[in-house]
Amino acid sequence: MLEQLKREVCRANLALVERGLVIETFGNVSGIERSRDLVVIKPSGVSYKNMRPEHMVVVSLEGGKVVEGRLQPSSDADTHLILYRGFPKISSVVHTHSLHATAWAQAKRELPIFGTTQADYWRGAVPCTRSLTAREVKRDYEANTGRVIVERFKKLDPEQFPGVLVASHGPFTWGKDPADAVHNAFMLEFVARLASETLRLNPKVGPLIQCCGTNIFSGNMGREHIMVKSNPLN
Q: Whose CA is closest to 121, among 159, 152, 83?
């Protein structure tokens, strides 16, 4: 069942290690088959070294019930399922605890858009969710993590903002397929590190701003973007 998707999801999970985005067994990738309402996700507790496509777990989109697989799905499965329900155009979800993006999440700060590198992927600042309440942490923590992400995106388009920082937790990204979602996770980690370095060099730097009604987002569509920088270096 869904053998091709299992291979893609397994390959994407291994790519997290190759790109330095995870340590130990932290992090996970999933992919969805929309036509069947089924999600393929990394199993819980399996080392990346030993991971194979046959280890991937198939769960139902609605209830999260295991449809195929001998292992338990990732503990973050409920978060992934909430995102697939809330964002019907995405096809894969990635969660990591990559160093720099997680640092911004722990600081509970959105990631300002300081330059064109980030503008190629996010239409503005990388958003950060609110903190979960004590009740939300105690009950259905993983599902509530997904809910605060969807809540944060009430006025945002997930296709124009392919990732988020969950306050006190870490980054989640998504994409058109597992490889694309991993690429967005890599770029989020890179722009988080870049922003930290930018602020170290110039703590007073301001964000990139829009000019003449054109947006600074080009994504991967090859659109031209016109921009100016506020607060230039003195």
A: 159
CA distance 95 to 113: 21
Whether pLDDT at 211 is above 60: no
Between CA 143 and CA 148 the distance in angstroms is 9
Burial of 227 (0-12, 13-18, 19+ CB in 10 A): middle
DSSP state of 48: G
Given pLDDT bands bounded at 50, 70 and 90, which one contains residue 210?
Answer: low
- pTM for the full predicted model: 0.89
How far is it, in rounded angstroms, from Cα 95 to Cα 26? 9
- Encoded tokens for 112: 């300002």
CA distances from 167 to 42, 129, 230 (A): 23, 6, 27
Amino acid sitting at position 226: I
Tell me the residue type at 172: F
Closest CA to 70 of 92, 54, 86: 54
Phi then psi dihedrals of residue 87, to 5 deg: -120, 85
Instruction: Please say whether the dihedral angle defined by the alpha carbons of residues 194, 199, 200 and 201, taken in this order, is positive or negative.
Output: positive
Q: Which residue has the higher pLDDT, 141 or 213?
A: 141
pLDDT at 215: 52
Cα–Cα dist 64/83, whole Å:
13
- The pLDDT value recorded for residue 205 is 93
